[in-house]
């Protein structure tokens, strides 16, 4: 009897009658029910997150220029990724399961985000309330949502801060440009002051020389009046000499007083010009944006620089007044001397007064001379100080001019682009070599593999592993093994065909390589049927239990959900040794469009398992040609 004949007889046996036919139909639908219903239920859960209830608590009171709480709430409500409910308190709702999770934006959220501007930096805190009793994955998804919200808020706040920083640079550049103009005006005014002080220095030197001459004349007058007092015996002649000398002194003093008044006018005009320059400098500094304290510091410095000028002017004005008094007194002395010569009775008293006045005049001229000599010494220093101020002002102007071009001054689009790059410097560009269309498509390789194994497992609830007639007739072990495997193999192909058709066209999971996927599923079914057939043939009822054990071991080691490398290391041999991991790997490459080179390796390993299982079945068929009591009446029948 051939293997095909044995297979045909077994199929005829299990389909003889209405109920057996229904049983065969049920066996064909088992993988379909397992794979298609599960994949349909989990096809795209992320698309239905808008049905998940979530609470949003917005307590943020906002800040001066930011209301981050409202912005975040508007973005979440507009996005509709969850079924958001805006409430005042969500703790009880999360506890009872009314909400899967809750997101709370505290009162100081916006204030904390802007706290760095007040030099009191602190973080804005988002509060995520979860309850794993509601759903563990819901909490995981909520953490991802909050991380995305945090990233978006951080990027926005950082971008706005960078924009303000760059705008501040533009403002600094504008104000520095104004400062350059002010420094230029200051340099020009300082140069003018330096030139005017040069002119003043020449005038003071001339005035000092005239004061020395006047002091010498006054000293001579004083000596003369002393001599006049001592020589009153020759009164008429002496009075005439005194009158003539007094008139000469008066004339000289009038000349000196006139020159001194002219120099005093020039000195006063210079002081007035300095006052006007000071006012102009202060006004220009204020217009350039300097603070009042900075303006007052500059004015104080200029005041110290011009102090010798002011002191010299005071002395010049005093000296001019003294010379005027001296000229007036000298004139009076001359008049008195002339009267003395004509009015001898009052000569003695007049001579005394003349002597006293001449002494005072000599002392005053000496003081004027000393003051003007000091002024003549100070004006060169003042001129040198003014020259230093002019040089420093020019350096300030040049420094500000050179620095203003180093301050950034971008236009609005450029500033916005730079702020965006600073605030959110890293972007992720996804480059997917292969990609599952949905969550269900991502799980499909794993659950199609499990469904194929379960389909093969249930086949042998109805099929007999080996033909007793063939064994009794002494048929070859290989022929009996293949004949027992073929009915399950044919039904497994039917299972795969039904399952693949519904998953592809009803559940709408489209493989990248449909023909290759179906062919690989067929190979998987043939292999799994061969393995379970071998277990049932070799171990009988215990083989069914071993098939369940192998299913469990493959569930934990195949890497159907998480990468298989995440399983504990002691389980690695299960992944490498059992066929399910290779079945899942091959389906992934065929369904997602990956490298087909590894599919060939996976197919060879499944084929090796197939041949190995048939070899084990052949050994079992060979051994079962000998009938025993336990075989005729087994202890356990499943």
TrEMBL record:
<protein>
    <submittedName>
        <fullName>ABC transporter</fullName>
    </submittedName>
</protein>
<dbReference type="InterPro" id="IPR017500">
    <property type="entry name" value="Phage_infect_YhgE_N"/>
</dbReference>
<feature type="domain" description="ABC-2 type transporter transmembrane">
    <location>
        <begin position="433"/>
        <end position="617"/>
    </location>
</feature>
<dbReference type="InterPro" id="IPR051328">
    <property type="entry name" value="T7SS_ABC-Transporter"/>
</dbReference>
<dbReference type="Pfam" id="PF12698">
    <property type="entry name" value="ABC2_membrane_3"/>
</dbReference>
<feature type="transmembrane region" description="Helical">
    <location>
        <begin position="603"/>
        <end position="622"/>
    </location>
</feature>
<keyword id="KW-0812">Transmembrane</keyword>
<dbReference type="InterPro" id="IPR017501">
    <property type="entry name" value="Phage_infect_YhgE_C"/>
</dbReference>
<dbReference type="InterPro" id="IPR023908">
    <property type="entry name" value="xxxLxxG_rpt"/>
</dbReference>
<feature type="transmembrane region" description="Helical">
    <location>
        <begin position="439"/>
        <end position="463"/>
    </location>
</feature>
<feature type="transmembrane region" description="Helical">
    <location>
        <begin position="484"/>
        <end position="506"/>
    </location>
</feature>
<feature type="transmembrane region" description="Helical">
    <location>
        <begin position="518"/>
        <end position="538"/>
    </location>
</feature>
<feature type="transmembrane region" description="Helical">
    <location>
        <begin position="545"/>
        <end position="564"/>
    </location>
</feature>
<dbReference type="InterPro" id="IPR013525">
    <property type="entry name" value="ABC2_TM"/>
</dbReference>
<keyword id="KW-1133">Transmembrane helix</keyword>
<keyword id="KW-0472">Membrane</keyword>
């Amino acid at each position: 009897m051939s293997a095909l004949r044995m297979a045909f007889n077994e199929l005829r046996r299990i389909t003889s009658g209405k109920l057996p036919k229904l049983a065969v139909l049920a066996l064909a639908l088992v993988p379909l029910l397992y794979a298609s219903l599960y994949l349909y239920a989990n096809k795209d859960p992320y698309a239905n997150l808008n049905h998940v209830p979530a609470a949003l608590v917005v307590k943020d009171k906002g800040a001066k220029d930011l209301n981050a709480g409202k912005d975040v709430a508007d973005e979440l409500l507009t996005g509709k990724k969850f079924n958001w409910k805006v409430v005042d308190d969500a703790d009880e709702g999360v506890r009872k399961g009314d909400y899967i999770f809750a997101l709370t934006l505290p009162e100081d959220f916006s204030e904390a985000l802007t706290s760095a501007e007040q030099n009191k930096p602190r973080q804005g805190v988002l509060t995520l309330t979860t309850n794993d009793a509601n759903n563990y994955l819901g909490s995981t998804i909520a953490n991802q949502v909050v991380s995305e919200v945090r990233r978006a808020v951080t990027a926005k706040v950082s971008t706005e801060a960078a924009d303000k920083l760059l705008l501040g640079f533009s403002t600094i550049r504008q104000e520095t440009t104004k400062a350059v103009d002010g420094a230029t005006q200051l340099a020009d005014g300082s140069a003018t002051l330096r030139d005017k002080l040069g002119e003043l220095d020449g005038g003071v030197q001339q005035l000092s020389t005239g004061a020395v001459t006047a002091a010498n004349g006054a000293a001579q007058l004083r000596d003369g009046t002393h001599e006049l007092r001592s020589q009153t015996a020759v009164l008429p002649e002496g009075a005439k000499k005194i009158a003539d000398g007094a008139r000469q002194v008066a004339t000289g003093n009038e000349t000196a007083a006139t020159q001194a008044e002219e120099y005093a006018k020039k000195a006063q005009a210079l002081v007035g010009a300095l006052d006007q320059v000071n006012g102009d400098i202060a006004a220009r500094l204020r217009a350039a944006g300097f603070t009042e304290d900075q303006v007052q510091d500059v004015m104080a410095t200029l005041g110290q620089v011009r102090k010798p000028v002011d002191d010299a002017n005071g002395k010049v004005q005093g000296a001019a007044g003294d010379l005027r008094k001296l000229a007036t007194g000298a004139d009076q002395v001359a008049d008195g001397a002339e009267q003395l010569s004509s009015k001898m009775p009052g000569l003695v008293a007049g001579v005394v007064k003349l002597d006293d006045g001449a002494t005072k005049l000599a002392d005053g001229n000496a003081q004027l001379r000393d003051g003007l000599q000091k002024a003549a010494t100070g004006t060169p220093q003042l001129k040198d100080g003014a020259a230093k101020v002019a040089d420093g002002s020019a350096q300030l102007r040049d420094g500000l001019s050179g620095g203003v071009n180093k301050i950034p001054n971008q236009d609005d689009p450029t500033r916005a682009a730079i702020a965006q790059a600073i605030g959110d410097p890293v972007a992720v560009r996804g480059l997917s070599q292969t990609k599952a269309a949905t969550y269900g498509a991502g799980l499909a390789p794993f659950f199609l593999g499990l469904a194929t194994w379960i389909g093969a497992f249930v086949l042998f609830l109805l099929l007999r592993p080996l033909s007793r007639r063939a064994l009794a007739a002494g048929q070859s072990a290989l022929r009996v093994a293949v004949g027992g495997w073929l009915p399950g193999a044919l039904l497994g192909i039917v299972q795969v065909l039904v399952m693949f058709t519904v998953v592809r066209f009803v559940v709408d999971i489209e493989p990248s390589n449909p023909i290759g996927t179906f062919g690989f599923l067929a190979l998987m079914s043939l292999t799994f049927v061969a393995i379970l057939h071998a277990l049932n043939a070799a171990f009988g009822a215990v083989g069914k239990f071993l098939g369940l054990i192998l299913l469990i071991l493959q569930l934990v080691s195949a890497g159907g959900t998480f990468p298989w490398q995440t399983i504990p290391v002691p389980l690695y041999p299960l992944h490498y040794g059992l066929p399910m991991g290779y079945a899942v790997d091959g389906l992934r490459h065929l369904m997602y469009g990956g490298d087909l080179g590894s599919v060939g390796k996976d197919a060879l390993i499944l084929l090796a398992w197939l041949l190995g299982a048939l070899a084990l079945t052949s050994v079992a068929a060979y051994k079962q040609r000998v009938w025993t009591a336990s075989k005729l009446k087994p202890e356990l029948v499943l």
